[in-house]
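R.M. (postdoc): so does anyone remember the format we settled on? I'll just put the structure tokens first.
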């Protein structure tokens, strides 16, 4: 019997899929019939989340992968493992992200906010581009934030070595997600692979709990009753990953499943090209990769 669900036979990789928006995205796409791979920082938690998604959706095709995406070695290992496991990749959802009140340095010597929120997606996407192109039509979905609207790219202090603050680092990283997505869309023209970026809304998750700043300690608890559920927060990710309405649509920023304008700086092509070159150097890739 042929599976009539709209994502049947499609393979999807979702980073940060063990909880919150990522897990809700995985549930939504698995319910539509997709073969879903999720990532988590430790395998037992990823296995538990995958089992829960399988039970919830009655879709047996949900696989866990372990990777700490702050580590470029682990990003590369994840890319290789997914390459081995899936002969095609129809959708890549770069969902993982974080915010830290104090400056943390990764195993690669990089500031964690920039490394996790931008460079991990930059590296993983580029490592998977050939498989996405071979699977076309295919889609890259980037989860950003409305915080991008107050961001600016400080090329003289991308790593926050001279002046770190969460209020600067997080918006910068989310603006970088937009600029990467727009530049990626330009580079992918004519390949059948689209790239779009989104704001999920203000969602009630454990986001920011690892090293919470004043906003997460004081303001967020009072806001929780008014925040979106993870399922509602995942709606735009699911829409961009699966809807026929955005087939062939690329290089746009979405909120509530509708295109929206973004930070003026996000449209600066020269700055996006420079960011691509810097990101390629920091992640050990050729700047010309596409």
């Amino acid at each position: 019997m042929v599976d009539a669900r709209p994502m049947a036979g499609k393979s999807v990789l979702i980073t940060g899929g063990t909880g919150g928006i990522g897990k809700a995205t995985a549930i939504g796409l698995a319910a539509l019939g997709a073969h879903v791979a999720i990532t988590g920082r430790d395998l037992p938690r990823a296995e538990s989340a995958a089992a829960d998604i399988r039970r919830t959706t009655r879709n047996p095709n949900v696989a866990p992968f372990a990777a700490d995406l702050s580590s470029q070695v682990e990003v590369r290992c994840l890319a290789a493992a997914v390459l081995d496991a899936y002969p095609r990749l129809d959708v890549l959802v770069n969902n993982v992200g974080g915010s830290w009140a104090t400056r943390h340095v990764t195993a690669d010597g990089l500031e964690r906010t920039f490394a996790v929120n931008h460079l991990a997606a930059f590296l993983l996407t580029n490592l998977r581009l050939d498989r996405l192109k071979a699977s076309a039509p295919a889609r890259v979905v980037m989860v950003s934030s409305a915080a991008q609207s107050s961001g600016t790219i400080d090329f003289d202090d991308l790593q926050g070595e001279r002046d770190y603050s969460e209020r600067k680092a997080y918006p910068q990283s989310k603006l970088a997600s937009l600029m990467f997505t727009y530049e990626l869309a330009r580079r992918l023209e004519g390949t059948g692979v689209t790239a779009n970026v989104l704001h999920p809304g203000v969602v009630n998750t454990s986001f920011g709990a690892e090293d919470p700043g004043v906003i997460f300690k004081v303001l967020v608890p009072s806001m929780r009753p008014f925040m979106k559920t993870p399922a509602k927060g995942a709606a735009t990710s699911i829409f961009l990953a699966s809807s026929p309405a955005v087939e062939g649509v690329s290089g746009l920023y979405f909120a509530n499943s509708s295109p929206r304008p973004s930070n003026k700086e996000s449209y600066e092509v020269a700055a996006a090209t420079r960011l691509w070159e810097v990101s390629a150097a920091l992640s050990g890739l050729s700047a010309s990769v596409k």
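R.M.: ...and that's the designed sequence above, right after the tokens. Also worth knowing: Residues 104 and 112 are 6 Å apart (CA to CA). The two ends are 39 Å apart (CA to CA).
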